[in-house]
Design a protein that fits this description.
The protein has 6 helices and 8 strands. It has 209 residues and is of the alpha+beta class. A hairpin with a 3-residue loop joins strand 3 and strand 4 (76-83). Helix 1 packs antiparallel against helix 4 and helix 1 crosses helix 6.
Length: 209
């Protein structure tokens, strides 16, 4: 797949995402009182079928997630994803060990929505601030889905025609003291990528000056 970015722009996106997810991870670490371990962001340009295959490889099975649309200097959809059977455990880590299963179940949707809002907003806001740009985010939505259907959930308006290209940034996170891991994924609409690329080029040109 031909990339839309130069090698310098590609490295810059990875570096900025690394900073953004690092700040988001600090917020999560405080919420769960545990160290959050992160992978290096993996940036790929994929056809929809390739993206679907990537999801099935890294995140097989039933997933719980929180997704959030964003627009501004870049547009797309961001998502926090983790195995569905572990969602209550993640909520318990946030709310505290002394809560009953019933209490946690009642607060699951609200807690996951707030978690997604904190993590995704942190990352997107940091990226925008570092590039001196503006980004607007929508209200996060909690969902449950089987991995083969994930792509249609994450692509804007379900558009995944064979000619389209998905810019996918995947970041794996895990908790040191708990057997919990998940992914952050950012699907960026390449049809409106001109502003995003221009912001990257402006940032790089200011580094040279």
């Amino acid at each position: 797949m031909k990339t839309l970015l130069s090698s310098d722009e590609h490295e810059l996106v990875v570096e900025l995402m690394n900073i953004g997810i690092g700040r988001a991870a600090n917020a999560l670490s405080q919420m769960v009182q545990d160290e959050v371990l992160l992978s290096v962001p993996d940036l790929q340009f994929l056809h929809p079928t390739e993206a679907s295959g990537s999801f099935c490889h890294y995140m097989p099975g039933a997933l719980a997630g929180v997704m959030q649309d964003f627009s501004g200097f870049m547009s797309g959809r961001a998502a926090l994803l983790f195995p569905e059977e572990r969602s209550l455990e993640l909520v318990r880590a946030i709310l505290g060990e002394d809560m009953s299963v019933g209490e946690i179940s009642e607060l699951e949707q609200e807690t996951l929505s707030e978690l997604g809002n904190i993590l995704l907003n942190n990352c997107l806001a940091t990226l925008a601030n570092l590039l001196n740009q503006q980004v607007q985010t929508e209200i996060p939505q909690v969902f449950n889905i089987e991995t083969p259907n994930l792509l249609s959930q994450l692509t804007l308006d379900g558009e995944q025609d064979s000619a389209s290209v998905i810019m996918l940034v995947q970041i794996k996170f895990s908790l040191r003291e708990r057997d919990l891991e998940g992914y952050l994924a950012f699907v960026i609409d390449v049809h409106s990528a001109d502003k995003f690329i221009a912001a990257l080029q402006q940032y790089l040109s200011e580094l040279i000056e």
